[in-house]
Amino acid sequence: MALPNLRNYAERFSDTAPSVTGSRNRYSAQITAGGLKLRESRIVADLLLAGIDDQSWTEKILFLQARSPETATRLGRLVRQRLETMDADLWKLVRDGSQIVATHATLAAIIKHSPLVGDFLDLILREQFRLFAPRLTKAIWEDYLSGCRARDPEMPKIHNELAAFSPYWTWPSTS
Known about the structure:
The protein has nine helices and no strands. The chain has 175 residues and is mainly alpha-helical.
């Protein structure tokens, strides 16, 4: 079975959800809060499936492992926003699935939530895979961000968040 073209997928959903600030910039979704967060996604998926009210949400989300209640709240909000782009069937996969299934379901939600990630996978990773490139360099990421800024001049400043997004993507030293 062939994978769907992520560019078409990103275009289909790019204008459907405004960012947290209410703007409709293409590249406004946040990836800086860090990574896939599978453990936290499983907890949030369970809360979403339980249909708890906002008061209970605030109490329960503090169980996320974070350095402070504010960080737990921010992380919970990000994971919830990611998962809410999908339906209850995906939440069940995140909550109950094997590590591989839950990881794939969480990544699908991240791609839908963040065109920045989806476009990177479609435009850059696909090409690097086709070229049998042994690694992704920091220059590739920086070139990609420049292209994003050309498509969306109001894009927020982003540094090296992709390194936080996945522990498997590392930047080789330039020296």
